[in-house]
Amino acid sequence: MSKIKINSFLAIITSKLILKTSKLLFKGGSNFPGKIALFFDKHIISTVSKGYTTILVTGTNGKTTTTSMICNILKESGKEVITNNTGANMNTGIVSSLISNYSFFSQNTDKFAVIEVDEAYLQLITEDLKPTLITVTNLFRDQLDRYGEVYTTYSKILEGILKTPNTKLVLNGDESLLGKLDIPNPIVYYGFNKSLREDNKVSVNADSKFCKVCKSPYNYDFVTYNHLGSYFCSECGYKRPTLKYHVDEILELTPEGSTVIFNDDTYFINQAGEYNIYNGLCAYAVGKEFNVDNSAIRTSLQNQSTSFGRQETISINGKELKIILVKNPAGLDQALNTILLDKKPINLSVILNDNYADGTDVSWIWDVNFEKLNTLTVDNIIISGTRLYDMAIRLKIAGFNRDKFVLCENDEELLSGLKDTTDNTTYILATYTAMLHLRKLLFSEGYIEKLW
To answer: How many domains does the chain have?
Structure first.
């Protein structure tokens, strides 16, 4: 048994008891045990993370899926891996996850910890944990009441990185804010060398449209989505950095997944949508930095299962529900593009909450191009959540037939609406707390076996 301070010992023992009780009584409980541990020892994370090869995954969109992909790639290559797979990515949830895997009687050498970290909490985590690698997925406008504009998120992440100058960084090279960083860390970049479309203009609602060096508008060889792509500034010469890992071609994009070429090798990503190609590429890049061979990565990506609420498929009375977490304009717009891949008649459900974890400002829904779904056959439109009427107005303005709206003010009406659909597939777009509540509802009704 390794020697630890008495306050650390009390933190671990108390949290383990709370974790066990929470799992027995409430089928979960990710944050409270960590909160108690931090009460006893505010630096407990340095104790419970000791010995791991640690990878931190942060950024606005794609953290949970990318974390899961990295974990599976490492496991496929024979590594032992722990992670915070419930998506509890603030310091309390991360501490809880590490404590749940902590043993007083064994060392963590030769083990990996792949940890999803909320952007605002990276600087707290790197205060006591010096990871081997940090990867950043992207930076989009998200929860204005909590993060402010995208540059605030960028500053918070950079503060966290500055506390661990020896950590290797694997960064999205198509994200213009992540180039030309004045830091000592070794950096490698990933991104697209080929886009699905010839578009080289960003939309009026795109985020980082102006050069981080001279503030002139960016030009693009191509745009993948929002402000991501092969950017350059014609005024000062700032441009996308050289990519070590890259998408060379997108061979096929379907509702079931994507066939792509990474660094001259072909892979199938068992998650639909262009944004999941980014997630897969990020996971591929991290895997290669740890010398995982291509065959292990290929097997892992083609067998990747969905994380809860991230294109998760649930059967209800023989009908298929596809739950997609949405939380900002860029992510929701990409979710709509994924739905557009499905050409058969569908149902659409949108559940909009305005709780703290969702962002209390829901004005962002007006920056999303719902209008493009009018090309599909949508038979039922089921709307719910604390801001259901805001969403109903937005969809009415987008041109959807009001007669197809099913407005659900409570759980019973929502469940009934989902059961009574005419088509077999319903796409559910839900904000964070709405997604969690829906899963709890489906769990209580016996439609899913595990809450977390």
So the answer is: 2
CATH number for position 37? 3.40.1190.10
Annotated binding site for Zn(2+): 211, 214, 233, 236
Q: What is the pLDDT of residues 136-158, one digit of tens each?
A: 999 998 765 555 578 889 999 99
Given 302, 337, 358, the domain boundary residue is 302
> What is the distance between the terminal CA atoms of the chain, rounded to a whole angstrom?
31
- Does residue 231 contact residue 178 with C-beta atoms inside 8 Å? no
Q: Rounded CA gap, 26 and 15, in Å?
A: 15
Mark the binding-site residues, compressed into ranges.
Answer: 211, 214, 233, 236
Mind telling me the catalytic residues? Answer: 361
pLDDT in tens, 357-371: 888 899 999 999 999
Q: Based on the domain organization, do 276 and 323 belong to the same domain?
A: no
Q: Does the residue 452 lie in any domain? A: no
> Can you tell me the distance from the alpha carbon of 203 to that of 223, in angstroms, rounded to the nearest whole number?
10
Mean pLDDT over the full length of the chain = 91
Confidence at residue 26, expressed as pLDDT on a 0 to 100 scale: 56
Structural domain contains residue 102: yes
> Is the same domain home to 211 and 335?
no
Residue 29 pLDDT: 58
pLDDT at 107: 79
**What's the one-letter identity of residue 342?**
D
Global confidence as pTM = 0.91
Last residue of a domain, one of 245, 279, 302: 302
User: Domain range spanning residue 417?
Assistant: 310-444
Least confident of 25-39, 219-233, 287-301, 319-333: 25-39
As separate numbers, helices (DSSP H) first and strands (DSSP E) second, the chain gives 14, 17
